[in-house]
Amino acid sequence: MPLNLAAEPSSAKKLEAVRSEISELDKTLSLNKKTKAELQQQLKKQSLKVSEISRELNQIKQSIAVKDDELLNLQQQLGVTQKQQAKQLEALNQQIRSAFMNAQPSYLKILLSEQSPERVSRSNTYYRYFHTARQQQLETLHTTLQNLTEQEKAIYAVKRNLDELQQQQLAQQEAFKQQTVERERTLAALNKKISGQDAQLAALKEEEKNLQSLLDSLAKKAAKRPPPSKPVKPSERFSSLSGKLQWPLSGKILASYGSQRNLDKLSWKGILIASEKGTSVKASAEGRVVFADWMKGFGLLIIIDHGEQFMTLYGNNDSLLKNTGDTVSAGEVIAQSGDQGVRQTAGLYFEVRHKGSPTNPMQWLRKQG
């Protein structure tokens, strides 16, 4: 059978074309992976910047509140001093008016008169007393006026400082808006990269794996730390707080522990609590912050170590108000909730872990009123 020589180069061309297409697809896939990683880094950077600006805004608000109280206190003091001044002026006016109305003679006139020495002595004592009393009144008035001036200066200084703080706040708010817009754009671009069920499933599995690795690492570090110098009372241990934990914030449960995540057989390892963006997040129990950073899939995340190998996790935050190493009390504000971490849902993601394994937070939290 004769060979079809014309078909051979045609097949070779097709094979080459297929190889070229595969190569281009490999390049595109590699580029997409690189772009996704870059977007994740960009989102992390922007989220941390938003958190930093938000923390500064929070500090400025606290400083403004302190200055407002200081200003109110100074104004109250000023009011008291002004009343004292008015009373002292009135007393002085009465003394002067009394002296004028009585038309008291001069010392010389008394001495040249033909009055008895006893009467002259009494008059002399009276004038000396009157002069001393008036002198004291004038000195008191002078001190009051000095205090008045100092208080007015202090009020002016506080007002000027308050104006500066408010200007800083406005500038930070503008920076906050800009960073938030940039973060939302990055997040939208990232969501496009992981659209599709397979991509989402792979992303979720990777996120869980990364979180577990982090928790294992934190547990190893906790085991190496020396025990507290002050022994913890049994009643204060985390293990005794079942059903007594404070809620990190109040809200409707959007996702329950153990419920399906509509992707393969993955389930929620914690609970998702609905809340408005920027709501204060509180520590559920006393402990030490062992992680305060951005993490893929969990956004800005805080992890608190409570001892006895118990940890609580607070994810999906808009800003973090505590740093790694900080000691926190139960009910202390540690963050502000957001909507950028866990599937772009506004609220807080909360977990309770023991020895690295998730436990049902609802068994630990007290009943909501």
Automatic annotation (TrEMBL):
GO MF, one annotated term: metalloendopeptidase activity
Signal peptide: none
InterPro entries xref list: Cell_wall_metabolism_enzyme, Dup_hybrid_motif, M23ase_b-sheet_dom
Keywords: Coiled coil, Hydrolase
Coiled coil: 36-77, 148-224
Pfam families attached to this UniProt entry: Peptidase_M23
Stated name of the protein: Murein hydrolase
Organism expressing this protein natively: Methylophaga nitratireducenticrescens
Source lineage: Bacteria, Pseudomonadati, Pseudomonadota, Gammaproteobacteria, Thiotrichales
